[in-house]
Amino acid sequence: MFETIATYYVQVFAVILPALVIGLIAIGAHRSGLSKAKTVVAIGGIAALLGIWHALSVNLAKAGILMPPLQATDPPYALMPLLGGAFLLWALGRWTETGRTILGGLDHIHLISIQSLRLMGGFFLIGWVMGDIPWQFALPAGIGDIMAGIAAIQATSALSRGDANAEQLVRRASIIGLLDFVVAVSLGIVTSVGFMQLMAFDSPNIINAYPLALFPEYFVPIFIAFQLFSLGALRRRGTQIATA
Predict the structure, then answer these.
(1) N or C, where is the chain less crowded by C-beta within 10 Å?
(2) Contact (CB, 8 A) for 6 and 127
(3) Which of 196, 185, 173, 175 is nearest to 219 (CA)?
(4) Burial of 239 from C-beta contacts in 10 A (0-12 / 13-18 / 19+)
(5) Is-contact 89 225, C-beta < 8 A?
């Protein structure tokens, strides 16, 4: 029952989150005056990347390849899409001219608002209630995601109103979001079957099995990249104010 609910749940967000990313790219390209040709290439490229990435994540998860390593000498396949995907998206945004141009056309409100979807992580609490996800992971990760989502909503609202503490709330939301990732990933490893499992032996975590594997292998890298974009925008603004 839970697996069926979880499958539909991740499928919905596997459409919503990439659509928001593509929408933000379109907004940034328009606001920055990027040419139509480069805009089409950027949108098409990211759409293709996210589509291929999703397909690979699904198939690798179903094949059991993204589970934590059983031995210390086994390759950490589970961390490769998570960290590698986040780095790739960040690099495309910061190390390419088109990426920097698009990011330059986005305000703080665009970069932080996508984090409001972190509320989706509250689904872990449902998994715990249904007895499919160990509480050692579900409670910290689920509550942490809800806190991150609420913090992002508060920051977005403050930015839209022009509150004096809006940037402070953006910074707080980014820090909460990144800390939540550290906690969730760490607990995901130590509660799952593998050589680093330290708890939840009676009910091992299934976060790296399909369909929940899409959380760490697909959704989280996207969120991490935008957290870094948001913090980078704050840092650049602080530098501009200091040198003004």
Answers:
(1) C
(2) yes
(3) 185
(4) exposed
(5) yes
Task: Report how far residue 68's alpha carbon sits from residue 65's, in angstroms, rounded to the nearest whole number.
Answer: 9
Cβ-based neighbours of 10, under 8 Å, separated by 6 or more: 211, 212, 214, 215
Within 13 Å and on the Cβ side, how many CA atoms surround 123?
19
- pLDDT at position 173 is 94
Give the tens place of pLDDT for each residue, 87-108: 999 999 999 999 999 999 999 8
Rg for the chain (alpha carbons), in Å?
Answer: 18
Distance between CA atoms of residues 6 and 221, nearest Å:
19
In whole angstroms, give the CA distance from residue 135 to residue 240: 45
pLDDT of residue 236: 72
The CA distance from 181 to 138, in Å, is 13
**What pLDDT sits at residue 52?**
96
Q: Which of 122, 168, 119, 126 lies closest to 148 in space, CA to CA?
A: 119
Domain that holds residue 223: 2-243
Enter the tokens of residue 47: 């759409």
For the chain, list residues with pLDDT below 50.
none
Structure tokens belonging to residue 222: 């996207």
Asked whether the bond before 211 is cis by omega within 30 degrees of 0, the reply is yes
Number of domains in the chain: 1
What pLDDT is recorded for position 232? Answer: 87
* Other C-beta atoms lying within 10 Å of the C-beta of residue 125: 18
pLDDT (0 to 100) of residue 1:
86
